[in-house]
Amino acid sequence: MGKSIIVENVSKKYKLYAKSSDRIKDIILPKSYGEDFYALQNVDFVADKGDVVGFIGINGSGKSTLSNIIAGIVPETSGSVTLNGDAALIAVSAGLKGDLTGRQNIELKCLMLGLTQKEIRELEPEIIEFAELEKFIDQPVKNYSSGMKSRLGFSISVNIDPEILIIDEALSVGDKAFAEKSLAKMHEFKEKGKTMIFVSHSIGQMKQFCDKILWLEFGQVREYGDTNDVLPRYEKFLNDYKKMSKSEKEKYREKVIQQKK
Questions:
Q1: Which candidate, 65, 69, 59, places its Cα nearest to that of 172?
Q2: In this structure, are residues 61 and 220 in contact, taking their beta carbons and an 8 Å threshold?
Q3: Cα separation of 160 and 89, whole Å?
């Protein structure tokens, strides 16, 4: 079994500015303006071919940032990501152009992925049927609901049959029937031995679907291991964390960040 995703010492730094003029000064003047903010810091993990890895963590832990880096949407500030296979990101409206129709978005995304016009014509009916957007497929995507955007993005990504699939909260919007259909498709991919990253707040979906769990805490790895080992500890943490006051949560955050420095 080979390695599918290798993330080595990945960090992502952003600059936070108190006012817009500081951003301009930071570009043209030697003095550094703004505050450094690390969305991710020194993240390491390896996924084997066929692994389904769940990303968990409270809001602001860096789950979506890491997903976007692995998918090649956002560059890392330092470190490296190695993928052995093509990756597709499924997130609400990810990669969709609002002024284009659903059909035009299908064609554009498929062209960007290197498919020929003939291949696109063959795939298009399957994508539209899976997305359940027949009546709306020739309407601008900017008029779609978040659920419709998610269905279109999911349908495009699963039908182009990538080797690595990254699902970021794509099943948290829309109706239950489509979520169940999407989970069934993901199980089909799992049986084919494809590698998947699954980002969700649903503990139930994680238990049902994931082999391994990467627990991110304030941009850093707290734990990485088998689902049955990591998830119970995360659930206990989550129950305790929810009981904290706002000031207690802030103190906890500062403590965690200082310990990892």
A1: 59
A2: no
A3: 12
Measured CA to CA, the distance from residue 48 to residue 214 in angstroms comes to 14
Mean pLDDT of 23-43: 83
Residue 59 lies in a domain: yes
Does residue 9 fall inside a structural domain?
yes
User: Which residues touch 84 (CB under 8 Å, ≥6 apart)?
Assistant: 2, 3, 4, 5, 49, 163
- Domain carrying residue 16: 1-83+211-261
pTM of the model: 0.83
Q: For the range 127-133, what are the long-range contacts, defined as Cβ-Cβ under 8 Å and sequence gap of 24 or more?
A: 127/152, 127/155, 127/156, 127/159, 128/102, 128/103, 128/155, 130/154, 130/155, 130/158, 130/159, 130/181, 130/185, 131/102, 131/155, 131/156, 132/178, 133/102
Locate 145 and state its tokens: 């609901």
Angstrom distance (rounded) from CA 7 to CA 59: 21
Collapsing DSSP states into helix, strand and coil, what is residue 17? coil
74: domain CATH number? 3.40.50
Q: How many domains does the chain have?
A: 1
Q: What is the pLDDT of residues 115-140, one digit of tens each?
A: 899 999 999 999 999 988 988 999 99
SS3 of residue 212 by DSSP: strand
Identify which of 83, 140, 192 has the alpha carbon closest to the alpha carbon of residue 152: 140
Distance CA 94, CA 253 (A): 30
The separation between the first and the last C-alpha atoms of the chain, rounded to the nearest angstrom, is: 34
H/E element, 165: strand 164-168
Cβ–Cβ < 8 Å for 37, 13: yes
C-alpha 182/C-alpha 226 separation (Å) is 23
